[in-house]
Amino acid sequence: MRILRRIPIHVILIVGALTMVLPFLWMVSTSLKTPQATFVPPDFFSLRPTWIPDEIVLANYVEAWNEVPFPRYFLNTVIIAVCTVIGVLMTSCLAAYAFAKFEFWGRETIFMFFLSMMIVPQAVYLVPSFIILSVLGWVDTYMALIVPWLAQIFSIFLLRQQFRTIPNDYYDAALIDGCSRMGFLWRVLVPLSKPTLITIGLFSLLGSWNTFLWPLIMTNSDKLRPIQVGLSYFAQEQGTEYGLMMAAATFCVAPIVVIYFIAQRNIIESYAKSGIKG
Fold it and tell me: How much of the chain, in percent, has pLDDT values that exceed 90?
């Protein structure tokens, strides 16, 4: 009986998994097609999707790589992502430590104010941010692409939830042994929160890797633009080169997919400990 009760749940999960995987399979399939096979006819609804191309064209990957300076775009993306991840981990640890373990006036009010900022869409503060960065002289520099994203509210929230699960008895014991407040953070809290820190790092990496609008507005030269801006090159007024675009999207997404599969166990563990339900 228990097995029969689980069948509908597994069916729903399988359908949901297929729904999420199919777009990626279609992306890879399209990247291997000829330009004629990727043409969309006027009567779109009569189109029968071809999952396995009649003629596999691997040259799309070579042409897409050479069409745009992707080596430079990848280098820019890696620099921005690494600096952002390190900064987010540092600021999240310090802020979460204060909100979780310190007692001060207005702590919960300030924290709720922080959370309320998550509902503000990026379009609202895009123009003010550009004006501020222009005054600072950071437009078209790495500073504009890194510094504004060194702190993330969701990361602070997630790490705060993790820190609150660690008993205060550990803190008292550390103080008795002569450990300072900062020493307790780096020697006790951080080692006990590795799954959550890995999750935060992965989310920050995803955000930096997939960002498009911010670097498009804040940069003027190709020397600083990341890979997502490079993908937009294949969508032009003259028409979209679907084969080349999907090929470029495939090798841009591949590193993130690999990293996710490596860290997925830590992601599930961190969500379970923080009390967040999907």
Answer: 18
* Lowest-confidence region among 21-35, 53-67, 113-127, 258-272: 258-272
**Cα–Cα distance between 50 and 129 in angstroms, integer?**
45
- Supply the pTM of this predicted model: 0.81
> What is the model's pLDDT at position 39?
55
Contact 247, 182 (CB under 8 A): no
More confident residue, 24 or 47: 24
CA neighbours closer than 13 Å in the CB half-sphere of residue 117: 12
- 48-to-86, 176, 240 alpha-carbon distances in Å: 46, 71, 20
Could you name the CATH architecture of 68-274?
A: Orthogonal Bundle (1.10)
- Nearest-10 crossing angle of helices 153-164, 70-101: 40
The neighbour count for residue 14, using CB atoms within 10 Å, is 10
